[in-house]
Amino acid sequence: MAAKRYLKIFFALWVALIVAIAGFNWWIDPYDMFPSPQSHGVNQEKPEATTRQRLSKAYGVSRARPEVLILGSSRGLAIAAHHEVWANKRVYNLALASTSLKELYRHLQHANAEGTVREFILGLDWITYNDGIGNSSYADARLRVDSSGAARPFNAAQYMRDIMPSLWSIDAVGASVDTIRNQPSPGETNAAWSARRDRERLSRKGGNRSLFLEFEKNTIYEASSQPFATSRNRGQDGPGTQTMREILRYAYTHGITARLFISPEHAHLLEIWRATGRWQEIEFWSRELVRIIAEEAKIADKPPFQLWDFSGYNTVTTERIPLPGHTEAPMRWYWEASHYTEALGYVMIDRMYNYQTPLRPTIDDFGVLIATENIDDHLLELHAARDVYAAQFSDDVQAIQSIVDAANRFYHR
Amino acid sequence: MLFNSYEFIFLFLPITLLVYYKLGAMGHQRVAMAWLSLMSLAFYAWWNPLYLGLIVPSLFVNYALGTTLTVRPRKDVLIFGVLANLAVLGYFKYANFFITTVNDFTGTLWLMDAVVLPLGISFITFQKIAYLVDAYRGQTREYDFLRFSLFVLFFPQLIAGPIVHHKEVIPQFQHRAAFPLRPVLLAAGITVFVIGLLKKVLLADELARYSNLAFSAAHDGVLLSFFEAWRGALAYTFQLYFDFSGYSDMAIGLGLMFGVRLPLNFNSPYKATNIIDFWRRWHMTLSRFLRDYVYFALGGNRRGKVRRHLNLVATMLIGGLWHGAGWTFVVWGGLHGLYLVINHGWHAWRIRWWGKDKRYGAWGRWAARLLTFTAVVVGWVFFRANDFPTAISMLKGMAGLQGVVWPDAERGLWGALANNLENMGWEFHNSKLFSGSGDLGFIAVTLLFLWAMPNTQQIVAAYRPAVNKVVEPARWPRWRPSPTWAVLIALGGSIVVLRLSHVSEFLYFRF
């Protein structure tokens, strides 16, 4: 009798606890995996999902069935899906941190298999293009297409592997609790909350100048230790270029409009590439891009896709960096030399879609359409602009050079 | 399928149990046994369906051989059976090892595709050999095929033991002991299973991080200092015990849920006061197999003192190699063989000087326990290390030959002594491999826990969790089917579920 009562109590309590845990995690849904109700101040914002974005986005894009995709590396995360140009359209930001072009291509195929993609914008930066520092470890089994692009059945085993820990794990419980704790306060809008979080993060990190410095050191030391470059067996495409061609071809075959852009890197990053001897690589890369865009358009017998170059030396990319320790007046457009703010994301979309609004400035020198016809002139102008920049910001240029010198001494002792 | 997985706990186990008892209650007990055998095959095939191609033919062949031997004990049939089982094990487990060893010694470059080791094959082989030998010795009866298959396939013990003996398990199926459902066995089974899982997911898996850190650092050529090396070696010592004894608890608990008592496998081995005692407490079913089927087969202690010692060492060498195809395992086995020889020698010497009845006092027992424990830890270093340089480096560190490092942040703990220590060669700087007082405290608490607390079967002793009688039932805590225990085990069962897995990929942003 005692044993029967024991079993009853055990099962009742165990099942209740297990169901309660799963119910809690399902409801709060920290990784944005479930169709649970969202309420302001409780679980509407999902800050924890960014730490597991490959998980949440692979399934998220299936639910969203977007017509418009935003593709890119972590930089592209700053482009808001609710820009006015896409009003009344289903838009999904499928940018992935530390990604590779190959991974983005696979996710494009996946998104298009789950819905119908009509257009995408693709943010390009030199590192992602060349798989230089990518540490992407996504589970290909989540995607609904095989590598040839053919649809494949939903992978239930993979889904279970993903969903069970989202319901029952210490990680998920911790993430749910953190989700509840990091929400807009009563009366605060989501936008204000997001801005407040950004400010807090910035001041925690010691302001823009320290973020710039940290990023620059990392990039310079990585660039000095490994010879990454756009592969160029003349006459033969490197891996990045091959994948780029696949993406373009895919867009043409599936009737998708693509808008491409070179990420608006801060002039500091160009300075890093110059000081580490990569300037010619960058030029070569831009030429490769316009070349294959033209070639693929010709093969498809369609007009070439637009390629916007937001980098270079313009009002935005030469934004002055605050002095060390200054956190009160953060930069308008940048976190550090490579990651830009959501505000700039809006301006870029304005520019690419030729959209004007009194809410935001129109910056005429920001963003140049480049193609085979004007690439030579464009690169020449860049040279000239660099000299002007170096004269105007000689301290910054000098500081970068001294980090590069230190890195060289470190690696060539 | 792993015991510590969602699919096992939420699907496999409840379905298998429910159908099993439902069929039993309807009077279809043979069907219930067939169901359990089939589900056990499914459990095994979950990893890789190809494994079935090995286990099913082996089941038929061994049944045929065993039946033949029971009716007419023929030595040639026995030898064929034993060699056939060893050949399968040899091919899957040792072929690569053999080839690399030959290559290393002769400079040849033989190549062979890596052979996939079917799970649990080492355990299955030993179980089958025991069965065939006993059939030859006339110690088996004619078992029907269904009971024999269930004995072999019964999923709780299939992958990693306990190495069950036909004598203790088949009769339980024979006597229909499993039916009807006995709530108290189910309750005790759940308890033992949950305790085993807690040991695995809360203790072993956490400790693994520390031992991996130390051993991989040593492997990479880092010279570990005294505390760093000891922390790594002890973490592994604890990890291995919690992992393996936790697994055995799970197996025993699952057996009980199906109304079957399995043999005990661990009995607080680190409480042992000598090495002979240790092997009566550590992986007990393996010790038993090695004694009955290797040591005795070699002649045991009937051929004089020298042969007896040689037999002991040989048995332990074989036991070492059984654990893994590598020379570090052989050395580990040899070391324990040597320990045993010394232990037997010491006993003989002690009896001669002090007589048979003289017993150790409390201090003597503690000294013996510490010495035994230290000897075992040294053995585990070889067991865990990937190669000899790693093991030697770890041991040098533990011997203090690679310096002593104490975290700079805790320099203050030593007060005025710090300078003296520094003069003696201590270094004060921070280390990823040793955090100072926190680590020492953790080690002390764990040792206290291992030495002072009763083990799982002692806690459940009153309900006979296993085939063996539990010696020294716990005074506290003692499990009984009370509401308090039900609540505790339900809480434990929920913690376990939260620890089964992690959410994939965690991205640290640079900013």
Commentary on this structure:
The complex is a heterodimer of chains A (413) and B (511). Helix content of chain A is 50%, strand content 6%. Chain A is built from 14 helices and 6 strands. In chain A, strands 2-1-3-4-5-6 form a 6-stranded mixed sheet. With 511 residues, chain B is mostly helical. In chain B, helix 17 (417-423) links the parallel strand 1 (404-406) and strand 2. In chain B, helix 3 (52-71) packs parallel to helix 5 and helix 9 packs antiparallel against helix 10 (226-257). The model of chain B has no long low-confidence stretch (mean pLDDT 92). Chain A binds chain B through residues 2-7, 9-11, 13-14, 17-18, 21, 31, 50-55, 74, 97-98, 137-139, 160-162, 164-166, 168-173, 175, 201, 205, 211, 214-215, 218, 335-336, 339, and chain B through 6-7, 182-184, 186-187, 190, 480-483, 485-487, 489-491, 493-494, 497-511.
> What is the radius of gyration of chain A computed over CA atoms, rounded to a whole number of angstroms?
24 Å
* Main β sheet profile of chain A: 6 strands, mixed
Quote the average pLDDT of chain B. 92
Number of strands of chain A: 6
Strand content of chain A: 5-15%
Query: Which class of secondary structure composition applies to the elements of chain A?
Result: alpha/beta
Low-confidence stretches of chain A: none
Give the overall silhouette of chain A. Answer: globular
Task: Compute the number of structural domains of chain B.
Answer: 2
Evaluate the radius of gyration of chain B: 25 Å
Helical content of chain B stands at: 55-70%
Compute the average pLDDT of chain A.
92
Percent of residues in β-strands of chain B: under 5%
